[in-house]
What we know:
Shape: globular
Oligomer: single chain
Largest sheet: 7 strands, parallel
Structural class: alpha/beta
Strand order of the largest sheet: 3-2-1-4-5-6-15
Number of domains: 2
Amino acid sequence: MTYRIVHWATGHTGKMVIRATAERPDYKAVAGFVYSQEKVGKDLGDICGIEKLGVIATNDRDEILKTEADCVLFLAGAEVDVPQSLLDVCALLESGKNVIATAAQYIYPKSMGADFEAAIQTACKKGGSTFHGLGIMPGFFAESLPLLLSRLARRVDKLNAYETLAYDKYPSKYQMFDLMGFGYEPNDPTPVFSNVDLVGDTWRHSAMLMADTLGLKYDRIENFRNVAVTDRDLHVACGTIPKGTVGAMNFGVRVIADGKTRIVLQHYTRMAEHLAPEWPSGDGWTVLMEGEPSISAKIEIGTEGSIMPTDDACMATGMHAIHAVPYVIAAKPGILTLADVPPVWGVDAFHVGA
Length: 354
């Protein structure tokens, strides 16, 4: 079977996805949606630095909706405009296209409220299509891996899953400065992540999925954000972070049940190795499950000393979406969560790019 794919958004990870699907004979790009006017009219291959694919990028939503396709790989940054992204997702589903989305808000639609979940369910019903949200952290290490490990546990007292990454080589000024808040004073309300409730939205969806799936009745979910300022100017890929501004941060959510913290999902990141030495360091993902038996797992993606660890994480996110295409297409219409998916393996991994 050949999977006809619509590539929605051609940012950093989106380009990786296009290049990876172009290597696979059973994936065929049939359309590409872009937000940048500069990319409109260009071949997707040219945008991604590979041979031409014969697919011209467009920002015409109606053109995409009219295109016959099996699945949309929706890699838009939904946090920029959640209402518009929901409209786009629902329109795609209603047109009969299955949708795989990588934004945190789509990991567990139920966590976004009854109206949000109902809109997706209704669109799936109208189009006979399936919706699936995934990613890496959130989207894999915060949900799929802990759920798998829970099969080994008699009792779980506390689950802590966290990500540690250095972002000094990540080039996106918008994501690092305007969104996360590096380079700003700690109490500056300008960056998006200065709002701790919005910060919590990165992990709340995963926390609810974990609690609901494992039957944890919780009292509340608390959001948190801690920052550390740099003691010197830092010259990094996205720009200069002045002395005295945010150079490292830790944020996430705590799930409280019976007055105790039972689940913690969080992220630690730095723009320089020496900052916040009391926090976990390195580039990778850790799951700590306290109980009987206690279980710990540490996973690193990429080789030691990788030039761009965040690129490795982006590639993993993209491949998670690509490998999901067959089971999403085969699934019955509706919302398919990470707790619902069948076992799936990277069955083509030994045969691509050798």
